[in-house]
Write a structure and sequence with these properties.
The chain has 733 residues and is an alpha+beta fold. Helix content is 43%, strand content 11%. The strands form 3 sheets. Strands 3, 4, 6, 7, 8, 10, 13 and 15 form an 8-stranded antiparallel beta sheet that branches.
Amino acid sequence: MCLVSFAVVFDVGGLRGGERIKYPGCSVWRETKHGGSKNGKKEGLSGSSFFTWFMVIALLGVWTSVAVVWFELVDYEEVLAKAKDFRYNLSEVLQGKLGVYDADGDGDFDVEDAKVLLGLKERSVPAQPTSPESEETVQPAEKSYVEPDHKTADIELEEEIQSVLREALHSQPDTDPMVDDVGAVESESYEIPALDDYVADLEERVSDPDTPGDSEIMPEDAMEHYEEDRVHEDYSEDQEPKHEKQTETQDTGIESKPTEDDVVIEPEKSEKPVKPEDYSDDVQVGKSEKETEQDKTEKAKKKKKPKLLNKFDKTIKAELDAAEKLRKKGKVEEALRAFEALVNQYPQSPRARYGKAQSEDDLAEKMRSNEMLQQAINTYDEVVSLPNVPSDLIKLSLKREADRQQFLGRMRGSLVTLQKLVQLFPSETSFKNDLGVGYLLIGDNSNAKKVYEEVLSLAPNDGFAKVHYGFILKAENKIAESIPYLQEGLESGDPGTDDGRFYFHLGDALQRIGDKEAYKWYELGYQRGHFASVWQRSLYNVKGLKAQPWWTARETGYIELVKSLEKNWKLIRDEGLAVMDKKQSLFLPEDENLREKGDWSQFTLWQQGRKNENACKSVPKTCALLERFPEATGCRRGQIKYSIMHPGTHVWPHTGPTNCRLRMHLGLVIPKEGCRIRCAQENREWEEGRVLIFDDSFEHEVWQDAESYRLIFIVDVWHPELTAQQRRTLPAI
């Protein structure tokens, strides 16, 4: 029978210790503070004396514990805080070495991982992180206190876990460590339209600053050339602005081709793109719910974690992880030094060199340095030249290299990089899609068309290839042929297809064949954030500007300009007629594919805020008159020109490229009847010597059904609500 059934407890500072004391027929726990001595001396004492002394000391211990608590002799909170801090620090030290033993995919080594390693639990499949870019933090496990009634098996398990911990601290793993997620602190979000799910999934794990596209200058109202949905820009700040950040995409054509050294500055901050709503969960137009579910299943299968480490890099994974952690935290300079040290120490490491390229890329963004960005481009290229580079790392390096080359306006260099990517991975249609965009950016529609024909022969349902192929067909004026490709591409919902350009051109193509479905697509484009309204479909917009189709002189604030034009209209007319008589070749035919039929020509004096000196020599008084009005001559998003339209001409419904300007029409030679213009839903007619003012970002259409020609003078002016700063810095169109 057990005579003793209590535990004598010394509980100081939250730390417990104890030893088991055996008595006939029972055993009890006596717990003492670590470092405590055993009670009493046993020599020379009988059994009863021992028991008496034991009871005395036990009672003293109980009262001592009570006194400690009652008189607050020990600051428990401080002791517990120190213990917790010790545990956290130990956890941080261990995670760097024990992370390779992570068996359950939670990012660190803990008791559950140890159970797996000891065979006491089945290995679980790690869940994919919801945000690869987010920084991973090690959460220390709470220390568990073993209660007296816990099973012996738990104690033995803890002892085995401690053994594993000690072994891990003093040895390198023989097993292959898990591949890390490569994330980054993202500087901006703008990307080239995603070209397929697989590459998009890879890109999600790499920082992707804003990626502009083309650097070419567009004439007014042109619609039939392709421009990437981000114009190229670099980090220079001392150049005259030439381009603008698009609201979504631009429908204008290309006037001049970029050179390798074109330099422009970042667009004005106030010009914010309209971001489309996320319709990823919607059933796409024209698709059944069943098809959409199948597509989602296929896309889910395609997504997989990129493998960025070769066998050698796995052996230095801890060092790579430490450097990458600095980069993820935004400590760019420290990360670059860390990766440079790794490259010097392990020159054959592709992952170390890729990390160096990423750090240089991040630093270029931080410093706004073209030189540093070029260094990053060179380092991305070096990655591919190393031996035993994982294919996923090659894809990411070349794709990012091409992207950064486009950012600097190096379109032909980017094209070479994309060609290399296609040669290395000929079965990847996504890279062929990239290559097609590369050709379009340099104005090579012929080669782009061949690329997309090849893609569609391999993947007939590729939505990205379809919208671009339809775009090219429409540029060739094959209107009816372009419609099914544009429509099916948009209905696919594939990455890169939900783009304002394609809604714009599909609607325009439908309008030209007289199909009322055009406004359904305009409405959908508006709902998805690509257009300001169904009627106002410009793509280069500054948010918040007053929007209405027709304006009065008083509403614009440009009363003096209007008065001057109307007062001197005969002078302007006579100089224009003289040019028509003597130098008719100065009037150039409209070449932007805006006419259904007829003859329409223009004689330009100012374009994008630049004076045409030779043209002004033919009309010197008109140009001298305009020099007084910088709102017109300085409007880098507009033109000043004569426009002559002959009988039988019809101009398709169309919109201008931007909401940043208003357009003035001064009537010079106007037939009595048969000439009219519609803006939005209202028709008006010109009068000689009078100015009409409208916002050409709204849909407008022109008919010339008179018996003689119509001559007007067009003057574009800045939208009156733009600030002086915006007028100075908005890039030209």
